[in-house]
Amino acid sequence: MDSDEALYARVKRGDMDAFDELYTRHSTRLFGFLRGQLATAADAEDVMHEAILATLESPEISFSGGSFRTWLYRIARNRVLNRLRSQGRGQGALMKMKAEGHEPAPPADDRIAREQLLQALDGAVARLPPTLSDLYHLRSSGLSYDEMAHVLDIPLGTIKSRMNQMVDLLRKELLPWTAR
Amino acid sequence: MDCPLIEGHLVGYHLAALSEEDRTEVEAHLVGCGACLRTYLALKTHLDRGGRGAAAPSEEARLRLRAAVKDRFRPTRSQRALRWLRRPVPLYQGMAVLVVAVAAAALAPTITRALGREDVARSSERVDTARPVALSTNIY
Hints:
The complex is a heterodimer of chains A (about 180) and B (about 140).
Chain A: H1 4-12, H2 16-35, H3 41-57, H4 68-87, H5 90-100, H6 110-126, H7 130-140, H8 145-152, H9 156-173, H10 175-178
Chain B: H1 3-14, H2 20-32, H3 34-48, H4 59-72, H5 77-86, H6 91-123, H7 133-139
Helix pairs in contact in B: 1-2, 1-3, 2-3
């Protein structure tokens, strides 16, 4: 199986089979990453389109400084930030989610309780501060600690401590739904 | 650990962000507790999908991107020719070419001999020198 980087080189030579393979490998997770940060699926699709094209077109990409996936997520994240900044709703969306606050404690029925736990998790993720939210989405997309350090351009040690902080925060936020 | 504590650790477990000790405890608990295992599987499915509302990009989005990539990275004529030359040839085509080549090699001496005999026959035709000049020009 070809590496992402080999497929990337083939796409740049116009090989559409390589593009299809690369798209199959990354589109779902990248879309999930973007969908978690943008208001609508259409926004996520637009940013994904821009990010993949920008990654393929960028002349200065060198894989010695990170994998194809690292570059893809780095560019996608920058596009998300630009879009949120230009739409002026980055903080707005977060504030909206924060304003929703905690929902009442879940009922005992297992299935409903599970559904509510997942809703509570979405709410808790939306309330994460931006630094931890980035980590959450990147990690959910399957990036390693090293790759996240490259994407966010911060030291590995900081990634580790923030991951602990993020997981601890989510655990505390979910406490009303788990302590039944 | 009991169920509520385990459930609190499930997100961290999924993101592989638990300490070795907590991870071992969660795994040991999941093996023996169906309710927590079901919760974990629901959580994992939810997180793998990217949470609320996320699924996969639409087919339309894929086609739009594919068309854009195809347009931007269209290969030049020489690249296309090179790719055509390097394309894998199906086995039956290769075999057909081989059969034709072997048959041609096998039949070549016979054909050459036959042509040679014809040449000899033609050169040994008797020339009627007694004929008038006007007619003999047709011969030469």
